[in-house]
């Protein structure tokens, strides 16, 4: 894995820049009172058997409240990246590290205050001009980048609204404070960001 300093935020930060910040333990409900996306008649994606995790293949990674694929929350840093040899790591700013690779969702880590542990893990991406969504991990219910808000609601009936981010953009979460949360940002009805965190979160940005 190559590591390079990056003095400016990259595309992943731009994707998250629309998000309203929700501080740990104090999730903010959107001002319009927007409920969780409606499941309507859409059935949740059929979960598939848990695959063997391949550090080089993000489609084999599972997003849970404990982490994303081989990257676990509270894991020692930088040891947590030792198997991710196909990614390039860039320090976006103190406490924020991006892992990038062509045709793959961006992965971003926020670190503990002393920089020795992984605090939260995020994946972000959306379809390009060709309509292709970058390869991404998925939750055990089959939700991944590019899933619809209806699919998300059908997969997680207990989904909670965390924050309204924009006119048609919302942050949601499922989980609890004991085991952690899976966080989702839905923009225009499409899941564009998924995170694993200790508390509900919809970050504005990781640098700034």
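^ structure tokens above, recovered residues below v
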């Amino acid at each position: 894995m190559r590591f390079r300093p990056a003095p400016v935020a990259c595309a992943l930060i731009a994707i998250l820049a629309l998000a309203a910040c929700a501080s740990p333990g104090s999730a903010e409900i959107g001002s319009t009172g927007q409920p969780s996306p409606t499941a309507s008649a859409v059935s949740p994606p059929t979960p598939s058997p848990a695959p063997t995790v391949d550090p080089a293949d993000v489609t084999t990674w599972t997003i849970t409240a404990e982490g994303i694929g081989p990257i676990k929350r509270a894991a020692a840093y930088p040891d947590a990246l030792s198997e991710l040899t196909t990614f390039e790591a860039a320090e976006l700013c103190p406490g924020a590290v991006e892992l990038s690779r062509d045709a793959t969702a961006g992965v971003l880590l926020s670190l503990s205050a002393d920089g020795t542990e992984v605090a939260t893990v995020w994946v972000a991406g959306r379809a390009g001009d060709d309509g292709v969504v970058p390869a991404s991990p998925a939750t055990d219910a089959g939700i991944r980048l590019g899933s619809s808000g209806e699919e998300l609601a059908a997969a997680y009936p207990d989904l909670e609204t965390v924050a309204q981010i924009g006119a048609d953009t919302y942050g949601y979460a499922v989980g609890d404070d004991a085991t952690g949360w899976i966080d989702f940002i839905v923009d225009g009805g499409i899941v564009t960001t998924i995170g694993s965190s200790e508390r509900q979160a919809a970050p504005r940005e990781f640098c700034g």
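Confidence is low (pLDDT under 50) at residues 2-33.
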